[in-house]
Amino acid sequence: MDKYTRAVYSVFRERQYHSTAFRIKTSQDNPKNYLVHHYNQSKEFAWSRHEFRVLADEVEGRYECECKLWEHIGLFCHHVIAVFEHLRLDEIPSRYILKRYTKDAVTNPDFNHKDYRTTTDDGTSIECRRTILYSEAVKIINKGCSSEAKFQIALSAFRDANSCMDTEETEMEHNEDTEMENNEQSSNQDDTTQETGEQNHIPQTENNDPYADI
Predict the structure, then answer these.
(1) Contact in structure between 34 and 54 (CB atoms under 8 Å)
(2) Which long-range contacts (CB under 8 A, 24 or more apart) does 171-174 make?
(3) Per residue in 173-208, pLDDT tens?
(4) Can you spell out the DSSP letters for 137-163?
(5) ∠ CA 187-188-194 to the nearest 5 degrees?
(6) Torsion-angle region of residue 104: left (phi > 0), alpha (psi -120 to 50) or beta?
(7) What is the DSSP code (8-state) at residue 38?
(8) What are the b/e assignments for 100-137, b being 16+ CB within 10 Å?
(9) Nearest CA to 33 among 65, 13, 56, 15?
């Protein structure tokens, strides 16, 4: 359990705590199958009335629940954890501990969340801008749904805004390309000037004529 991150370990501990409310009985068809159900099977909790089959093969180290929570998110459900407690397992098989939930999950990663750009050029938070724009967009959408006239106004406004932003993005890309070309031309001119200066420079050679002083 020391392999998990603190956050994931907290989730596991919480599920382990709630797993004590489940009751276990061995299946008559297969001793490796366990039937797990919540002790409170009242109508107040519809999900608690279901009984889940858990496969627990200690020899092969195989543990599966028909609720398929591990297959969905990679963390064990209450039912499997209850079976763990019932079998008194010393540790979780390593095959079920996904690297993304461990402390060394960012070792040589394909990408890192720190690489994402979180601020704009002027220092404004992108998330802050997204929240403001989303809030305003929802207001327009709600008003636009109230009538056909307002719907057309909102739709036209969204399309106009999208078109303007596309134009602005195109101009920005053009300006960046122009700036890059200018920088390349300036760099080439500097190299040419340096080469010309080297060619025009005539190095002074030492006079080794023995009769020069006569």
Answers:
(1) yes
(2) none
(3) 878 778 777 777 776 666 666 666 555 555 555 555
(4) HHHHHHHHTS-HHHHHHHHHHHHHHHH
(5) 90
(6) alpha
(7) E
(8) ebeeeeeeeeeeeeeeeeeeeeeeeeeeeeeeeeeeee
(9) 56
